[in-house]
Amino acid sequence: MTETTEPDVTIDSRDATCPGPLMDLIGRVKTLEPGTVVELQTTERNSTTDVPEWLEEAGHDLLGIDERDDHWNIYVEVN
Protein backbone atom coordinates (compact mmCIF):
# COMPACT_ATOMS: atom_id res chain seq x y z
CA MET A 1 0.00 0.00 0.00
CA THR A 2 1.34 3.40 -0.88
CA GLU A 3 1.67 6.11 1.72
CA THR A 4 -0.63 8.42 -0.24
CA THR A 5 -3.61 6.06 -0.39
CA GLU A 6 -6.02 6.58 2.47
CA PRO A 7 -8.85 4.13 3.13
CA ASP A 8 -12.41 5.34 2.63
CA VAL A 9 -13.69 2.76 5.11
CA THR A 10 -12.01 1.04 8.06
CA ILE A 11 -13.29 -2.26 9.44
CA ASP A 12 -11.89 -3.05 12.89
CA SER A 13 -12.04 -6.84 13.23
CA ARG A 14 -9.16 -7.11 15.66
CA ASP A 15 -9.67 -9.93 18.17
CA ALA A 16 -12.37 -11.58 16.02
CA THR A 17 -11.67 -15.24 15.35
CA CYS A 18 -11.61 -16.83 11.91
CA PRO A 19 -13.68 -16.48 9.77
CA GLY A 20 -15.02 -13.33 11.46
CA PRO A 21 -12.76 -10.75 9.77
CA LEU A 22 -13.49 -12.18 6.31
CA MET A 23 -17.22 -12.23 7.01
CA ASP A 24 -17.06 -8.61 8.23
CA LEU A 25 -15.30 -7.65 4.99
CA ILE A 26 -17.72 -9.54 2.75
CA GLY A 27 -20.74 -8.00 4.45
CA ARG A 28 -19.37 -4.48 4.16
CA VAL A 29 -18.09 -4.76 0.57
CA LYS A 30 -21.61 -5.63 -0.60
CA THR A 31 -22.75 -2.14 0.46
CA LEU A 32 -19.90 -0.16 -1.12
CA GLU A 33 -19.46 1.53 -4.49
CA PRO A 34 -16.71 0.47 -6.92
CA GLY A 35 -13.47 2.33 -6.28
CA THR A 36 -13.93 2.40 -2.50
CA VAL A 37 -10.74 1.58 -0.58
CA VAL A 38 -11.28 -0.54 2.53
CA GLU A 39 -8.85 -1.14 5.38
CA LEU A 40 -9.51 -4.37 7.28
CA GLN A 41 -7.76 -4.51 10.66
CA THR A 42 -7.31 -8.05 11.95
CA THR A 43 -5.34 -10.03 14.52
CA GLU A 44 -6.25 -13.29 12.76
CA ARG A 45 -3.21 -14.57 10.81
CA ASN A 46 -5.42 -16.69 8.52
CA SER A 47 -6.96 -13.47 7.18
CA THR A 48 -3.68 -12.73 5.38
CA THR A 49 -4.35 -15.72 3.12
CA ASP A 50 -8.15 -16.07 3.29
CA VAL A 51 -8.89 -12.48 2.30
CA PRO A 52 -6.65 -12.43 -0.81
CA GLU A 53 -8.16 -15.76 -1.95
CA TRP A 54 -11.68 -14.39 -1.58
CA LEU A 55 -10.77 -11.12 -3.30
CA GLU A 56 -9.50 -13.02 -6.34
CA GLU A 57 -12.70 -15.07 -6.54
CA ALA A 58 -14.94 -12.04 -5.97
CA GLY A 59 -13.10 -9.78 -8.43
CA HIS A 60 -11.87 -7.13 -6.00
CA ASP A 61 -8.27 -5.85 -5.77
CA LEU A 62 -5.79 -6.44 -2.98
CA LEU A 63 -3.81 -3.22 -2.57
CA GLY A 64 -1.52 -4.48 0.16
CA ILE A 65 -1.05 -6.04 3.57
CA ASP A 66 0.81 -4.16 6.29
CA GLU A 67 2.00 -6.07 9.34
CA ARG A 68 1.85 -4.06 12.55
CA ASP A 69 3.14 -4.97 16.01
CA ASP A 70 -0.12 -6.64 17.07
CA HIS A 71 -2.29 -6.88 13.92
CA TRP A 72 -2.44 -6.68 10.13
CA ASN A 73 -4.04 -4.03 7.96
CA ILE A 74 -5.36 -5.45 4.70
CA TYR A 75 -6.18 -2.89 2.00
CA VAL A 76 -8.81 -3.66 -0.61
CA GLU A 77 -10.30 -1.78 -3.56
CA VAL A 78 -13.89 -2.65 -4.33
CA ASN A 79 -14.65 -3.37 -8.01
From TrEMBL:
- What are the UPF0033 domain coordinates in residue numbering? 10-77
Coiled-coil spans in chain: none
The entry's family comment says:
Belongs to the sulfur carrier protein TusA family.
Output the InterPro entries linked to this UniProt entry: TusA-like, TusA-like_sf
Q: What is this protein called?
A: SirA-like domain-containing protein
